[in-house]
C-alpha cells in the first residue's frame, strides 16, 4: 500500500487501547501513529505490542500513513518493539528522543530487512534540536522531523508559547528544508477541545514552514487540516504561476510576470506542491 503523500495531521493513539486504534480510522487524519512509548504504561507495553501485531494488518487505513512510535533507541523496550511490530503493515517509525546521528545509524542496521520503511525523527531535547542537520543527514530513511515541545521546554525552562518556541521551531524547519523532509509541529496543548486555538497555533507553524502538526484529540483534526490546506486563493495563484512558466518555457526565460509581479522559476516546485496538496485535500473530503 502506498501512503498518502502529505502529513497535515498526525494522530497519536496508545496501542494498549485497541478500541481507540480501531476508532481512529473514522477520523480525517493523514497519518496514524500507534504509540508504544510515553502513551503506554510500562507495565502494559507487552500488551500494547500484542494488540499492535494483531490489529495493524487488519485495519483499513484508506491509503493513509501507518506509523508506530517505538521506545528510545538504546533501551530494551526499543528492541522488544522492533521484534513485535508487523513491519509489512507499517510505513514509518516515529523515533523519540533522538539526539545523535549514531542512533539513526543503529536503526538503519536494525531495519535492514525493511528497506522502504521511513523514520519520523522526534527532536525534543536541546541537544537533539542543536544536532538536527547531522541527524537528518545520517539516514536516507528520514521522512520528517517532529518537534516535541514538552520535553524541550522541561529541559530549557522555557514556556510553551510562540515566542519561547520560535528558535527551536525555526531551527527544525531549516534542517528539514536542508535535508528535504517534512517538518511536523508539536501538538497544541493549551486546550485539546479548543479548535480556534489549535487552528491559530497551526497557522503560526505553517507560516514558519511546518508541513503538518500532531493532534491528540478528535476536536483538533479539522482545525489542523484546514490550517495546512491551501486556500482557494492560494491554489489559484499557484496555478497561474505554474501556467506562466509553462508558457515561457520554450523561450528559456527564468522569470515570468504573474499578477503584475516578477516571479522566478525556482518557485515552480513549491507552487506545484501547493496544487498537489490542494488536490489531495479535495480527494480526502469528496
Polypeptide structure, described:
With 286 residues, the chain is α/β, with parallel strands linked by helices. The chain contains twelve helices and ten strands. The protein folds into two domains: 9-227, TIM Barrel, CATH 3.20.20.60; 232-285, no CATH class. Helix 8 (162-179) crosses helix 9 (195-208), helix 9 packs parallel to helix 10 (218-227) and helix 11 (232-248) packs across helix 12 (268-285). The longest helix is centred in the middle third of the chain and has 18 residues, at 162-179. The chain is globular, with a radius of gyration of 20 Å.
Summarize the model shown.
By secondary structure, the chain is of the alpha/beta class. The chain has 12 helices and 10 strands.
* Structural class by helix and strand composition: alpha/beta
The top-level CATH class of the largest domain is Alpha Beta
What does the largest sheet look like?
8 strands, parallel, barrel
State which percent range the strand residues make up: 15-25%
Number of domains: 2
Quickly give the CATH architecture of the largest domain: Alpha-Beta Barrel
Low-confidence segments, given as residue ranges, are: none
Q: Please tell me what the overall shape is.
A: globular
Strand order of the biggest β-sheet: 1-2-3-4-5-6-7-8
CATH fold-level name of the largest domain: TIM Barrel
Mean of residue pLDDT?
A: 94
**If helices are DSSP runs of H or I spanning 4 or more residues, what is the number of helices?**
12
Helix content: 40-55%
Distance between the termini: 21 Å
Amino acid at each position: 500500500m502506498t501512503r498518502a503523500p502529505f502529513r497535515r495531521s498526525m494522530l497519536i493513539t496508545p496501542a494498549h487501547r485497541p478500541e481507540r486504534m480501531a476508532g481512529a480510522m473514522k477520523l480525517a487524519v493523514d497519518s496514524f501513529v500507534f504509540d508504544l512509548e510515553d502513551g503506554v504504561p510500562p507495565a502494559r507495553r507487552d500488551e500494547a505490542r500484542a494488540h499492535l501485531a494483531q490489529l495493524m494488518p487488519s485495519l483499513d487505513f484508506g491509503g493513509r500513513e501507518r506509523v508506530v512510535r517505538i521506545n528510545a533507541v538504546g533501551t530494551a523496550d526499543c528492541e522488544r518493539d522492533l521484534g513485535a511490530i508487523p513491519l509489512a503493515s507499517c510505513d514509518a517509525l516515529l523515533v523519540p528522543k533522538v539526539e545523535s546521528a549514531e542512533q539513526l545509524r543503529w536503526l538503519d542496521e536494525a531495519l535492514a530487512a525493511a528497506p522502504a520503511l521511513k523514520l519520523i525523527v522526534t527532536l525534543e531535547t536541546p541537544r537533539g534540536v542543536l544536532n538536527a542537520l547531522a541527524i537528518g543527514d545520517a539516514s536516507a530513511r528520514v521522512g520528517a522531523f517532529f518537534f516535541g515541545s514538552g520535553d524541550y521546554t522541561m529541559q530549557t525552562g522555557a514556556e510553551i508559547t510562540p515566542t519561547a518556541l520560535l528558535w527551536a521551531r525555526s531551527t527544525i524547519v531549516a534542517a528539514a528544508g536542508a535535508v528535504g523532509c517534512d517538518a511536523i509541529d508539536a501538538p497544541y496543548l493549551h486546550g485539546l477541545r479548543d479548535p480556534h486555538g489549535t487552528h491559530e497555533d497551526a497557522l503560526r507553524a505553517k507560516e514558519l514552514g511546518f508541513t503538518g502538526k500532531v493532534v491528540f484529540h478528535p476536536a483538533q483534526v479539522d482545525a489542523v487540516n484546514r490550517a495546512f490546506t491551501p486556500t482557494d486563493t492560494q491554489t489559484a495563484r499557484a496555478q497561474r504561476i505554474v501556467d506562466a512558466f509553462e508558457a515561457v518555457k520554450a523561450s528559456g526565460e527564468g522569470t515570468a510576470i504573474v499578477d503584475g509581479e516578477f516571479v522566478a522559476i525556482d518557485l515552480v516546485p513549491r507552487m506545484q506542491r501547493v496544487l498537489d496538496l490542494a488536490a489531495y485535500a479535495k480527494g480526502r473530503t469528496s
